[in-house]
Amino acid sequence: MHLEIPSSIFLRGQYTTSTHSSYFQRTMTTSAPAISPGVNEFEREPVPTQKLKGLRSFVGMYAGEHVAGTEFMIGPLFLAAGVSAFDLLVGLFVGNLLAVLSWALLCAPIATGVRLTLYYKLEKICGNRLVLIYNLANGVLFCFLAGAMVSVSATAVGLPFNMPMPALTDWLPTSIAWVVAVIIIGGVFALVAAKGYDAMVRVANTSVPWMVLVFLACGFIALKQLGVSSLGDFWKIAQERIWMGGEPLPGQTKFTFWHVVFFAWFCNAAMHMGMADLSIFRYARKWQYGFASAAGMFVGHYLAWICASLLYAVQLAQNPANTTVAPGPLAYNAVGIAGLLCVILAGWTTANPTIYRAGLAFQAIFPSSSRFRVTLVAGAIATLGAIFPALSMKLLNFVGFYGTILMPMGAVIVVDYYLLSRFGLASDYAAKAKLKINVAAGAAWVIALATSALLNRLAGVQIYFLALPGWLTAGLLYLVFSAALQRSRKPIIA
Amino acid sequence: MKKLLQVLAAAGLILVLVPSLLYFGGAIDHGAVRTMMTWGTVLWFIGAIPARSR
Predict the structure, then answer these.
(1) Statement to judge: residues A110 and A242 lie in one domain
(2) 3-state secondary structure at position A490
(3) Which residues of chain A have a pLDDT value below 50?
(4) Contact (CB<8Å) A210/B48
(5) Which of A26, A194, A349, A360 has the greatest number of CB atoms lying within 10 Å of its CB?
(6) Whether residue A316 sits in one domain with residue A456
(7) Predicted pLDDT at A387
(8) How large is the ipTM?
């Protein structure tokens, strides 16, 4: 999943000399204090032409950002969900393709059209109060995402100490050793994030090519151990011994082709159709650079997921009773110390910026608190979440939930950008009417979330499929509510 | 110096990937893969971190 590798991989040394302000730029609100005074990050103005960047920067950033600690969980969880070979391999291809198209055809054109951060654009549409609420949701979700990464790293750190790993069906912590490992790791991650982490960013930048190859090596080794000795054997063994379909493991939802497609499409929903990557693509010379996201999707969300899934298939083939999804032992058994280090670094390098981003989001809500303190609080929430294995064992559900919550605001931006003027309505209405909350946007978001909840509760629609109806509902309602709101008030020239 | 670091890093990456391909082809055993990948990892970070910091 997307997860969260430092955006500074893309930004550091290219857009700015400040790592911290790079994070600020991608994730932050408009009301938090600037972290690096004197460095112009264009937080409240369009990016000027001379600061635009070429395609290569975007390809590198996306390839790095989507090889994260959580990939080690998601791949095995597909297998635990009883997915078949065709459903996984083709479903992932289709879902990732749809995600790339969402970046390229929805997010990047708006980003290159307005060249503003998500947060400034949202503030202009929704008002600064509503952006604060969005930040709170974002911050809390970031904390739990980081928590999943902490728990991934804990499985690697605990391995040399023979720590018992949580089982697939465990929701509560299963041993004191697990709790201690998570608290130590979460504490270190939080402290490094709070103190600033230039060195960590350097390690993260350096790790990416190595990490991709470790994933690939894991895949080749697992294939051999599963009995594939030539590429010609692959499809037969894939169907009969790896992704056999059938019933999911206990506690897991059965995944079909459409589950895989929708999961792959919407696991980064907040970034593409949710428009968080406006902050990235505002630097793109052309909207077509949105296709650079393919590097992330097909390296991280295709190759890495499949390789991680193969590691779990080896474990199940060796001992069908061992259904524990513990990335540390999985990678160690395949490639030794390199695998263990890969799991720790994949978790660490991506949890750090995630905790940092959560801290920044909270700081916008409590501007008088120091960034150090709020980042520690964010790290503490992440650690608390990581103690409970449910967070990582139910990661597929959490990712669906994450997209469902944040994505509707992307629909508001799309409708504001493309449609309002065609209906004779003003875009960026909160800025033009000097509103702190644009009720049309706020109501569209809340009702879209309520609709998703009702679809889930009353119609039994699974969480993986809620993001799209939520997005469409929010867009439609924003158009209707904007018409009602703007026609009831003094007209504003669009 | 930078050239040397780049060579070390490249050798590290080769040692990370190639052993798994040799294992897949039946040329070496699993233990050798793990050892070679560990050395590849060491070489990569020795070469790449200073090279990328410059």
Answers:
(1) yes
(2) coil
(3) 2-39
(4) yes
(5) A349
(6) no
(7) 94
(8) 0.96
CB–CB of B13 and A210 under 8 A?
yes
Give the three-class secondary structure for A18: coil
User: For A108-121, b where at least 16 C-beta lie within 10 A, e where not — what string?
Assistant: bbbbbebbbbbbbb
**How many structural domains is chain B composed of?**
1
Identify the three-state secondary structure at position A53: strand
Which of B16, B21, B30 lies nearest to residue A338, judging by beta carbons? B16
Say whether A336 and B35 touch across the interface (CB within 8 A).
Answer: yes
Whether the Cβ atoms of residue A354 and residue A270 lie closer than 8 Å to each other:
no
Contact B37 A224 (CB under 8 A): no
Tell whether A402 is covered by a domain.
no
Shared domain check, A238 and A348: yes
The phi-psi region of residue B31 (left if phi > 0; otherwise alpha if psi is between -120 and 50; otherwise beta) is: alpha
Instruction: List, for residues A84-115, the tens digit of each pLDDT value.
Output: 999 999 999 999 999 999 999 999 999 999 99
Residue ending a domain, among A397, A421, A444, is A397
In a domain, A182, yes or no: yes
pLDDT means over runs of 10, chain B (54 residues):
90 96 95 96 91 67
Residue that terminates a domain, selected from A364, A397, A430: A397
A322 and A193 assigned to the same domain: yes
Does the CB of A493 have a partner CB in chain B at under 8 Å?
no
- pLDDT at residue A493 in the model: 54
Number of domains into which chain A is organized: 2
Which of A206, A215, A228, A344 is the best mutation test for B, with the most CBs of B within 10 A?
A: A206
The whole-number pLDDT of residue A13 equals 28
